[in-house]
Structure formats: C-alpha cells, structure tokens
Amino acid sequence: MDYATFLGQAERGEAPALNLLHGADGQLLDDALATATRGFFPDPALAAWGREVFDGRERGVDEIVRSAMTLPFGGGRRLVAVRRAQALTARGADALAAYAKSPNPASCLLLLSDEPLRASRDRRTDHWLLAALPAAAIVELPARGARELTSWLRQRAAVEGLTVSDEAARLLVELTGEDTAALLGEARKAALAGGPDNRAVGVKDVGAVVGEHRLDAIFDLTRAVERRDRAAALKTLDRLLATEDWNLLLSVLTRDVRTAWTAVAWRRRGRGVDEIARALRRPPAVIETITGAGGGSEGLLAWKLRRCWDAECRLKSSGEPWAEMAALVADLCAER
C-alpha cells in the first residue's frame, strides 16, 4: 500500500487492522496519525476512550499487542499507535508476527517509525519489523525532491487555510531544507509575520521571518559559485558557517547544481529554453546563462552533483563541517 492510499482509507475510518509506516518524515507520520484519529473518532471526545498512543522506546511488544487485542468500549474500533516503532526490541518479533497472522479486526494497530527501515548505507540490514509483518501492512513514506516538496507545502498549508505562493514555497524549501515539519512551521510563522489575520504567504513574508541579510548572504554564496569565484565563495562560506547549519547551505548548493545539470542535459536533447524555464521554474535568461558556453558541460555538472552527494555522506558520517564544505565549494568553482 502507498501512503496516499493509506490516508484515504484512514480518512474514511477504514484503515487496515495492522499498519507499519516508516520513513524520515515526521510530519507525514503526524498527519497519518491525525487522519486516522479523525476517521475513527469523528467526535474528538471519543478519542480519549478509544485511542492509545505508545512510545516504542518505553513500551514492549507484549504490552502493545495486549492493547491491540482489547475490545473497544461502546462499539466502533480502537486505534493503537506506536511512535518511534523502530526502537521496539527484536525480543518481541515472535509475538508481533503471531498477532500479524490474526489481528484484531476491532482495532487498528498503527506502527510509526521515523526512520527508514530498509537496508541502506546507514542501515546494514532490514529492520526486524519488516520480516515480522506481511508486505501488505508496510507503507514506505514517499521521498520528495525540491519540486515535489514545494507542491506538498502549498497543499498541506492549504489544509490549515494558508495560501502560500509558488515563489514563497520554493524559497522556504531552499532555506529550510527537506524537513517537512520545519517547512510547515516556517510557513505558519511567515503567515503571522503579515499580521494575526493574514492567511496569504508571499516572498515578503518569508523574508520577514528569515531576514533579508540572511537571504542576501546565502545568495552571495550561490552567485560566487556560479561565477566560479573561489576566493569570494570561500569567504562567504566562512561567514555563513558561523551562524547557519551546513545542511541548509548544502541543500541550496545541491539544488543549484541539480538544476544546472538538468537544464544542460535537456538542452542537449533538443528542448527549448522557454520549455526548460517553465519546467524548472526559472527565468529564461537564467536558463540561457546556465546552458551557454560558460555554464559547464553535462559531464562536469554530473560530477559536481555526485560531489555534493559525497559531501553529504561525509558530513553525516561525522565529517568536520568547515573542512568538508570548503572542499566542496572549491570543487564546485572548478572548471575542469
């Protein structure tokens, strides 16, 4: 099952009896729990009787299974949710697997893991939960690029009555990164910057929250890299790292390299400047510059994009931020 399908079922109060949602997106997990709660308990007062929320770091599988087996009070269905399910110990694997074979239809057991559970560069093997549960019960949270995050932010903000312009959403993604909870929080703050009754968020509102000086400094870095002015880029980076998290700076640099690589690749395959500009949501003049003679070859930009990914891996493996970011910026200014 995919995430959207789960939300649709949960909204109708028809979520399956057993579900495991996993991925590094806390906001999507919060939305899933909130949606299931609304679906099962149209009257919020009933949630106090029929919903139980555990923390996987503090409770064991046996206690959670007992709760899921409990019959609902006064009809309807129970909702048993487990936050940070990845922390459940493997000692409970047999008990959970046995429950999965015949789950209580009068309950919905919702396991929420705020970490991806598949084997990856950060996890050597699949988490035991994936083997204990049937494949139909497992929901992987969707991964989104910057463009998908922009659309998601506008749609999610609209649920709360906020209208976020496309430019404001893109700016929030660039400056805040890929943490959806942080993105939504910044959108809310930007709305308040326009007044207590303001429901529309534009670039001006984002600037009021982020700060014009901060915006200028970040764009000074990207402009210096575009000009391949290594000295200016490193000087700006040094100033920024005194106040900014490396995650933000790396995401902005990676975004620019990915955009340039995509534009050059598409131009080489015969797509027009205006078409590329519309697809990438950049002015045609910018696309002309990126794909011009001085913009870099497709091979060079592909190498720079891999270099960004390599820097991210090193930094997440306890690399020293200034050294790794300085080496990356120097490489992004290279013309080889």
**Helical region count?**
17
CATH homologous superfamily grouping of the largest domain = P-loop containing nucleotide triphosphate hydrolases
Radius of gyration from CA coordinates: 23 Å
Main beta-sheet annotation = 5 strands, parallel
Topology as a string of helices (H) and strands (E): HEHHEHEHEHEHEHHEHHHHHHHH
CATH class of the largest domain: Alpha Beta
Number of strands: 7
Strand order in the sheet with the most strands? 2-3-4-1-5
* Total count of domains: 3
What is the name of the CATH architecture of the largest domain? Answer: 3-Layer(aba) Sandwich
List low-pLDDT spans. Answer: none
* Percent in helix: 55-70%
- The amount of beta strand, in percent, is 5-15%
The termini sit apart by 46 Å
User: Which topology of the largest domain does CATH recognise?
Assistant: Rossmann fold
What structural category characterises the helix and strand content?
alpha/beta
How would you state the average pLDDT, rounded? 88
Taken from the alpha-carbon principal axes, the silhouette is elongated
Give the structure's gist in a few sentences.
The chain has 336 residues and is of the alpha/beta class. The chain has 17 helices and seven strands.
